[in-house]
Hints:
Oligomer: single chain
Distance between the termini: 20 Å
Number of domains: 1
CATH superfamily: SCP2 sterol-binding domain
Structural class: alpha+beta
CATH topology: Nonspecific Lipid-transfer Protein, Chain A
Helix content: 25-40%
Number of helices: 5
Amino acid sequence: MADFKGILDNLNKKIEAADPAKMKGVSAVYQFDLSGDNGGVFHVTVDDGKATVVESEHDSPNITITMAAEDFDAMLDGKLNATSAFMAGKLKVKGDMSLAMKLQSLLG
């Protein structure tokens, strides 16, 4: 499993590889609160086709996603499905649920 920096690097690679057209029209702040040994808090600002990862809390995110760092890492690697993680209680969402669904399609 990757450490927190490795998780952010992996996320940045996913974002760079994402189709900007899928992010068109989306303007939101996603905050992630990852627990566990390699956990931490960061947010992703998506603004009409461009996403930026910032290693800090945001004052007013549109959505906050809470999960174990190892589960988030597995999700980025395609080993854990986001919907399955949510149904199993491994992924908790606070805020606009429709943004959570968009995030899954953005990251593929």
